[in-house]
Design a protein that fits this description.
Low-confidence stretches: 187-194, 341-346
Strand content: 25-35%
Structural class: alpha+beta
Mean pLDDT: 89
Distance between the termini: 20 Å
Helix content: 25-40%
Radius of gyration: 24 Å
Order of helices and strands: EHEHEEEHEEEHEHHEHEHEEHEHEEE
Largest sheet: 6 strands, antiparallel
Number of helices: 10
């Protein structure tokens, strides 16, 4: 199955930019034969011609408006109406490639001005369409043609795009066997987060939200092989990159194997604590992936709205003797992480 991708029409398709030009992208040009593309130009969609006078985002009070400075025309409501119609008619897709820094399609870095005059911008944000796409479809593969010139970003985008397309295909079959086959044929490769973040120029950090001894809940008992009433350490941590929340982590640690672990600094590697303090070297870590919605405090901690879709990864860490030492429930922001899969074909 070919991935379905929404692509800004001005990127390698048609001369529909404000100045009647086309945006060249070697990556998009190479990708087009391998995907099912749906193109969009919001400006043309609301009836503006080519060429046309430019648009800009103008902040008025607490709202941001889409204004044409030369005419003073406000196209905000017309744009929202067009976007609503477009998205309601759009079938399920796997990703978006949108025009960078566009006041309509930009996903990030779009200039926002205080007025329509010749004044400097006061902040940056998302375009009208790009912002709605990020809010509703942050779990999909989302990028702009500018960032896709970066090799690592390009690689991450393609991995996520094709993984989501394969998952969509498996779900379309509508059987448990099809989903089981998807997970069986694809082995999740959990990258070393801190290394990958630093390679992309990000600074990783960890906030310990709580670390307390509790009776093991059903989730921990089942995965750690514990009896009812057994005590575990419940560790809640928030993982960040450049101070932006990326992942919310809950780990359940066996206190019978790690007595007094609640007294330790657990803001860095748990496995290092296991090995250096207790002589317990993790040997194997198994994981399961699903997609879930979050609300309330979880959404707030991750900087997301209610009912946001995130990756839920549950896992168990085993020692060399085959006994579990800890298990986890981790919520990964789907707009910040991509997943790498490797297929084993017989």
């Amino acid at each position: 199955m070919r991935p379905k991708v929404v692509i800004s029409r001005c990127i390698e398709y048609e001369n529909v930019r404000w100045n009647a030009q086309i945006v060249r992208s070697e990556f998009v040009e190479a990708l087009i034969p391998h995907v099912e593309a749906i193109t969009i130009c919001p400006e043309v969609g609301i009836g503006l011609g080519v060429p046309r006078e430019t648009l800009r985002l103008v902040k008025t009070g607490s709202s941001v408006r889409l204004i044409q400075p030369t005419t003073g025309e406000d196209y905000t409501e017309k744009m929202f109406e067009f976007i609503g119609d477009f998205l309601s008619d759009l079938a399920e897709v796997d990703g978006y490639i949108l025009k960078s820094r566009s006041p309509t399609s930009g996903l990030r870095g779009v200039k926002i001005y205080p007025s329509i005059g010749k004044v400097p911008h006061i902040e940056r944000g998302s375009g009208i369409f790009g912002g709605i796409v990020k809010e509703r479809f942050g779990h999909l593969a989302l990028e702009d043609e500018g960032r896709l010139r970066n090799g690592k970003i390009r690689e991450h985008f393609l991995r996520k795009l094709y993984t989501l397309a394969r998952f969509r295909e498996a779900r379309s079959w509508g059987t448990f066997q099809s989903l089981l086959r998807f997970h069986t044929e694809n082995k999740l490769l959990r990258a070393r987060r801190e290394k990958n973040m630093r390679e992309m120029g990000l600074v990783p950090s960890t906030q310990v939200l709580s670390q307390k001894i509790f009776p093991a809940n059903a989730f921990a008992r089942d995965r750690l092989g514990l009896e009812q009433g057994s005590k575990i350490l419940r560790l809640n941590r928030l993982r960040l990159a450049n101070d932006v929340p990326m992942m919310l982590e809950i780990r359940y640690i066996r206190t019978d194997r790690c007595p007094g672990i609640e007294q330790h600094d657990l803001s860095s590697s748990l496995w290092k604590v296991f090995e250096e303090t207790y002589g317990l070297k993790p040997y194997r870590h198994s994981q399961h992936l699903s997609i879930t919605k979050i609300t309330g405090n979880q959404s707030s901690l991750l900087g997301l709205g209610n009912d946001a879709l995130v990756f839920l990864i549950t896992g168990v860490t085993y020692l060399a003797d085959g006994k579990p030492i800890e298990c986890e429930e981790s919520l990964y922001r789907s707009d910040k992480y991509d997943l790498a899969f490797e297929a084993f074909l017989e």
